[in-house]
Design brief:
It is a single chain. By secondary structure, this protein is of the alpha/beta class. It has two domains: about 160 residues, 3-Layer(aba) Sandwich (Rossmann fold), CATH 3.40.50.2300; about 140 residues, Rossmann fold (3-Layer(aba) Sandwich), CATH 3.40.50.2300. The protein is about 45% helix and about 15% strand. The strands form two sheets. Strands 2-1-3-4-5-11 form a six-stranded parallel β-sheet, sandwiched between helices. β1, α2 and β2 form a beta-alpha-beta unit. α2 packs across α10, α5 packs parallel to α6 and α7 crosses α8. The chain is elongated, with a radius of gyration of 23 Å. Bound molecules: beta-D-fucofuranose. Beta-D-fucofuranose binds next to α2.
């Protein structure tokens, strides 16, 4: 009797503590004070392509426009450096951190460190593993594109416009990053559901032009029958053009190229007939990023994801779209 009573008391206390902990964890999402100007951090992942440069410029321009102080860091392609960049922003006492996490898992401790230091985090352009960190609990929200949808749109375009081309080489983005994981899933699911289309090989080109060229060269040698290259970003698509030409083939004729990002250079390459189609992924986050911070400070309910709309380019609209492409 005594034992079971004691057992009951311990269990009840444990349950109460667990529920208090759960509530505390939820309430712990740091708030942002309402102020005229802020000192915010932007932890960029790398600066090796026009997409990244456009994103950084958009964040810097918008901060300058509003008179906010921006602490900018560039992790130069290293998740470990990006973790220490976030830690140094915490030490500098920024009001809020915008983080473009290079990969889905290694940045989680940095998100927790900011949260525990009372600094809200907004994820920009790349997300993190949803089973390990959650919007509204560990960070405020994710702002960016729906990468699964981007991959799906490219896959759907291929199925509808293949003209007999069906043997695909896939150039994946940075291993472990959310756009690489999701652009692969969205595209591969469409291909799996359409008999007659095959992915011959799929390998990471790290979202980089020269790595993309090297990987495309190797894959084209191993699979001389390939007639489609799907690149997870413009840089690797442009690298693939060089690889195709080096192999004595004609991009756009012998091999269809599909891309995601849709920057000016790729839209021009669609006009030139070298690239078949591209789904846009806008890097111009500045206005939306700072507006979201202001809305958060005002106490507005922020959805867990704020999805950017993406345009889609092919030969039917590339000319008229060129001026508006970033
Ligand atoms: O597609 C790529 C960049 O995270 C959405 O990263 C972004 C991707 C973009 O390096 O070009």
């Amino acid at each position: 009797m005594t034992l079971s009573r004691r057992h009951f008391i311990i269990t009840a206390a444990g349950a109460a503590a667990a529920s208090a902990f759960a509530q505390a964890a939820f309430a712990d999402l740091p708030k942002l004070a309402k102020k005229e100007t802020y000192k915010v951090g932007f932890a960029q992942t790398e600066s090796n392509n026009p997409w990244r440069l456009a994103q950084t410029a958009s964040m810097q321009d918008e901060a300058a426009k509003r008179g906010w102080q921006l602490v900018y860091t560039d992790a130069a392609g290293s998740a470990a450096k990006q973790v220490s960049d976030v830690n140094s922003m915490i030490a500098q006492g920024v009001d809020l951190i915008f983080l473009a996490p290079r990969e889905e898992k290694p940045l989680i401790p940095a998100i927790f460190a900011a949260r525990d230091a009372g600094i809200p985090v907004i994820l920009l352009d790349r997300s993190v593993d949803a089973t390990l960190a959650k919007p509204g609990v560990d960070y405020v929200t994710f702002i960016g594109s729906d990468f699964i949808e981007e991959g799906k749109r490219v896959g759907d375009w291929l199925v509808a416009n293949a003209n007999g081309k069906s043997k695909i080489l896939e150039l994946e983005g940075t291993t472990g990053s959310s756009p690489a994981n999701d652009r692969k899933k969205g595209f591969d699911d469409v291909i799996a559901a359409n008999s007659g289309f095959t992915i011959l090989a799929s390998q990471s080109g790290d979202f980089a032009r020269d790595k993309g060229r090297q990987v495309a060269e190797t894959l084209l040698q191993a699979h001389p029958d390939a007639d489609v290259i799907y690149a997870h970003n413009d840089e690797m698509a442009i690298g693939a053009i060089s690889a195709i030409e080096a192999a004595g083939k004609v991009p756009g004729k012998d091999i269809l190229i599909l891309s995601i990002d849709g920057g000016k250079e790729i839209v021009q390459l669609i006009i030139d007939g070298k690239v078949a189609a591209a789904c846009e992924c806008s890097p111009l986050f500045g206005p939306k990023a700072y507006d979201t911070a202001v809305a958060y400070a005002a106490g507005d309910t922020i959805p867990g994801k704020l999805i950017n709309p993406d345009r889609f380019y092919d030969a039917t609209n590339a000319k008229e779209s060129l001026a508006a492409a970033y």
